[in-house]
Design a protein that fits this description.
mainly alpha, rod-shaped, disordered N terminus
């Protein structure tokens, strides 16, 4: 039984193949935008840490910079979505 308070627009409605495909494309686009925004933010943080490390030579900053750059590198790969 579907609780109508939770999902009223879906009750009794069938989704066509075209609607489902457009919905998946939309979600994929949103995830790609999020991935790109996170990647840009990590890049900016890495740049700031690199400048600080250059000034201070603090090894803790270097460790954090390496950690950030590892995560940044992971975001170069496209996210794969599977049903």
């Amino acid at each position: 039984m579907v609780d109508s308070a939770v999902s009223p627009p879906c009750r009794g409605r069938r989704t066509t193949f075209g609607e489902a495909r457009r919905s998946i494309a939309s979600v994929t686009c949103h995830f790609l935008c999020i991935r790109n925004a996170v990647r840009e933010l990590l890049g900016k943080q890495a740049d700031a840490l690199a400048r600080k490390f250059h000034e201070t030579r603090d090894m803790a900053l270097k460790d954090e910079l390496e950690r950030l750059l590892t995560e940044y590198g992971k975001l170069e790969e496209q996210w794969k979505f599977s049903p």
